[in-house]
Amino acid sequence: MVDNSMPPNMGTGGMGVPVGQPTQPKVNPLKQHLRQPKIYITLPSKGQWWADGSLDYPENGEIPVYAMTARDEITFKTPDALLNGQATVNVIQSCIPNIKDAWQVPSIDLDVILVAIRMASYGQNIDMSANVPNTKLTRDFTFNIQQLYDNLQGANFESKFKIKGFAVEIKPVTYRTTTQQSIKAFEEQRVFQIIENEDIDPKVKLERFQKSFANLTDINQNILIDSVISITPDGGEKVSNPAYLKEFLEGCDASTFNEISDHIKAQKTKYTVKPLTVQATKEEIEAGAPESFDLPITFDQSNFFGSGS
Q: Distance (Å, rounded) from C-alpha 303 to C-alpha 4?
């Protein structure tokens, strides 16, 4: 026999809702309390050099940035995800929904994006510490990263330039490329550590060193090759076929290769975070510090994205 009896207040209303339980609205009342954009930024690239579909670039060029969620903070504490770049990609896409594929972020946009996420999440000030040169002292300081953001925004990427005999056009490499190269370089550095092991036969050490050095050379060369869009000889035809560019850059005179490499390095330097120059205190000078010294500003996730100041 089936018992059709119900406990008090457990019947159903006309809409199938158990009696005694309040009906819920179709739209979540908490939705209005979800994250809202904290700041708006412009990208140094102005939307150039992004792969199709990787960026929803607004007409006014102002991109909304949201604060990190609790999940984002946890993501930045996952070592494997940090090493392969996936953590950074996930957080960028979470905090800047206009970015659909963060692997395609041009290198000149990356630091601006990370600084913006930090400001949106914790504000403009960041507490940092650094060792004072030539002493055992540690300097604690507060840095306003708005200054850092302004400096990065003020740089100008020169994509077209002339060298002897050629006109060259370049682009910033993507975050995917820089991450892949960094992983390779990290692996090669591990080989150098093996080489320093005194228990390994000297002949084996030499073989490993030569192989590691060749791989590191390839890494640096590939970054340059990935940066070049086209090369036009004086009075000649513009060449943009990647296979032809690779063949040329691997086989051209060292002077030509170095001229292109030097220009690319100069553009990269423009978007490199400069250290903070500070004046030493009397105590620091007495301990052996110079009158002024540089304090590095790093994007290490353990401090840059660790917490607000």
A: 62
